[in-house]
Predict the structure.
Amino acid sequence: DKRPKEEKPAPPLPSEIRNKEKRSEVYAKLKREKKAQKRRLGRERGQAAQRAAELGEEVPEKQVPRTIENTREPDETVCRPDDQELFAGNDADEFNAVLKQVVTPKVLITTCRFNSGRGPAFIKELMQVIPNAQYVNRGTYDLKKIVEYANNREFTSVMVVHTNRREPG
């Protein structure tokens, strides 16, 4: 027989079938077949691993599912707690004494030049939250003068509360 073999046409995709009942039957059948094939492959993997263990061969590694976490590329900007290079430069840092808790931090809180309605309430909350915080009314002073004042009184930080559209930020 030199005649070419007639190949069986592939079953139509469910989306190509117009009849709703027939389409749902074909879809359910495809889904059942796919599930059975997946189960069969899992069973074959398990049997292959069991045979390898019985024969003393190396057991194939278990497949790890691909997730967002294990496919993510490592980010160099994230600080690791065991990174010695990161902590080596802390001795020269101006906040070294504060970080090692040798010096208690003092914070000076001031406002922008033209403070508005909600700013004072926000500053009051900041004063309750931040220990050793002191509020200085800015008035018409330049920020440079406020910073000099803070340096003379040994403040470790200066915080300027700026209100934008009457919202503190």
